[in-house]
Amino acid sequence: MKYNLFVSGVQEELEIERRAVKNLVIENPLLKDYFKVFLFEDLPAKGKSSKKAYIDEVRRSNVYVGILGNEYGNIDENMISATEREFREAQKGNKEILVFIKGRNDKIRDAQVRKLIEEIRDPESGHTYKRFDDLQDLKNHIHESLLDFLRDEGIVGRTVFDKTIETDATLKDIDDAKIKWFLEMAKKKRGYPLDVTTSVRDTLIHLDLLRETGLCNAAILLFGKKPKRFHTQSEIKCIKFSGIEVEKPFVSYHIYDGNLFEQIDKAYSFVLDSIRVPVIQQPGTVQVSRPPEIPGFVIQEAIVNAACHRDYNSTGAVQVMVFLDRVEIWNPGKLPSQLTIKSLKEPHTSYPNNPLLTDVLYLADYIQKAGSGTLEMIKQCRNKGLPDPEFIEKRGEFRIIIPRDIYTESMMEKLGLNKRQNNAIRYLKEHSRLTNKEYVQINQSISNKTAWRDLNELIEKNIIAAHGNRKQRYYALR
Hints:
The protein has 17 helices and 15 strands.
């Protein structure tokens, strides 16, 4: 069964937003199976003048999505806009009503829009509404709201993604060699009981990846010959930047697909290759002086967590980004409701989003025992003299930020540096040396006296060192 979803909003002002909602649904591997989207723009041209045509669509809908901007829209003989008329029809039909309000400043909206917002915000209305700032924000809210609807209908929540049966896949889609490799690794690393000569079918049954009704999604992701044929979202994007900001041109950019083991291995190698480049060159010598690089375990654990615990119902990919001073790993999805950012830094129980993936990756020695990975990451970073990894949950994504050196943004905040001094450290991380004249230039032509005072303070805090005589003096990170 597909639910009819009606998208409403002022056509000219919100055309991009309306179209984005439909594109999100038809491109999402889960939502496209359960929702059919109606846009007024999709009506045949000869029927677009008829109010009855789109009111009938509201009546046929199960879910009404209303998008409100600044404009109320054209009004009819009853002094009501098409958007409000559709909203009233949805109310009358007791539809599931989801409203999304663009922007935060209600003062600039038409009076009728402000009145409508006040009504929707009333707790007694029973309507769901959220504000959004940009297109991605809207799509994230739509995605979450529609998933909530499916949960309420009892459709999502019965099975998790990796346990869901992929009806189009057969054993011919499984890589026999990868199964054999896994059996060898699992026996060697975890004492797995199956012999390496065990058949593909029996191995998958033993791992709970093959049921009477077919192969689970996890089987395809882990051992498929071409997983992306079934799940286009299964990939890791790796990007290396030349500095500390997201800027083009990229130093290197690769997209890795294949089975999950291959994705993880290639992404891990990408990071290792990228961080071998010296961060800071000791001025006047060929020697490299830099803070300790990231322990290999920390990199692998972060990548495996992203690939294993991501939301596979999202069309987004895992992203690995290497900057001059840090590595960031992003994945679609949120922490399980039982966990918080704080609890990741303490002993905790594991609540895997994809338990079948987690079990197999553990047997292959790709991840640690339940709940210990993040603690070990923190421990190994500290042992290397690095700041703790940062764990961030934001806008439907989970991020891990791993510092490559001690001069991270959060560390500089703790040092109590002013904006000019922070600018100098960022400059030094990219250029290795800094003169007094350059300090003045990067800080919008401050006085030489201010520059001298700032730089001396950095020397006193043991952050930089001065080199050369007075006329040829320059500064470098210690």
